[in-house]
Automatic annotation (TrEMBL):
This is Uncharacterized protein. It comes from the Bacteria.
Length: 204
């Protein structure tokens, strides 16, 4: 999956902004990492980022060595399921209604040992697949770094969240458009210093 590395960023916090598209779909037109405020002398294409599962990450490259995407940090996992047939599945398997912000309308279980959670997720999926007409999505959620930040994303009006990792902060944000390859540009001042990093998601 394509990624872009940019140098010249400070080791302190920076502002990340998102701008809405003017089109009929109220999605993001671009996301901008603001580094410093100065007149823009040049804007240069530096590549493109590939997005899978509809989410972007802005991260320190060294900090990513600590990232655990699927392995649970505490040995636990959650299972969530939702859809037209979710109430029937909850009744069949005594699933709980989830109360976490962003999981409204979902059922499942939280804080299960990883093997138990996986068995339950597979059992619910098998029940769904036993009748092709059943409408149900199932999400197996190990308590990984990805799970931690996605809890924030689901609960956020901007579909974004941050997570400390080592000495850095990682930002996750949904593109609002789904998957794709998105161009990246950098703004620099007259001295060549980095002013901003821009990811264009849609033409405004």
């Amino acid at each position: 999956m394509p990624a872009v590395a940019v140098d010249g960023l400070p080791d302190s916090a920076v502002l990340v902004e998102a701008e809405r598209s003017d089109g009929p779909w109220d999605g993001w037109s671009q996301m901008i990492v603001r580094v410093r405020d100065a007149p823009v002398a040049s804007t240069v294409d530096v590549g493109a980022v590939g997005v899978d599962a509809a989410r972007l990450a802005f991260a320190d490259a060294d900090a990513l060595e600590l990232w655990r995407h699927e392995e649970p940090l505490d040995g636990l996992a959650d299972v969530a399921f939702w859809g037209l047939d979710a109430p029937a599945a909850a009744q069949e398997f005594t699933g709980d209604r989830l109360t976490t912000l962003g999981d409204e309308g979902s059922y499942g279980w939280t804080d299960l040992p990883i093997r138990s959670a996986l068995r339950r997720a597979m059992t619910v999926e098998a029940w769904r697949d036993a009748e092709p007409g059943r409408k149900l999505a199932v999400d197996f959620r190990p308590h990984s770094h990805h799970w931690q930040v996605m809890r924030q994303v689901r609960a956020s009006d901007t579909e974004s969240g941050t997570l400390p990792l080592g000495d850095a902060q990682i930002l996750y944000a949904m593109t609002s458009w789904g998957d794709g390859i998105f161009p990246v540009q950098v703004d620099r001042d007259a001295d060549g210093l980095l002013l901003a990093v821009r990811v264009t998601l849609a033409e405004s």
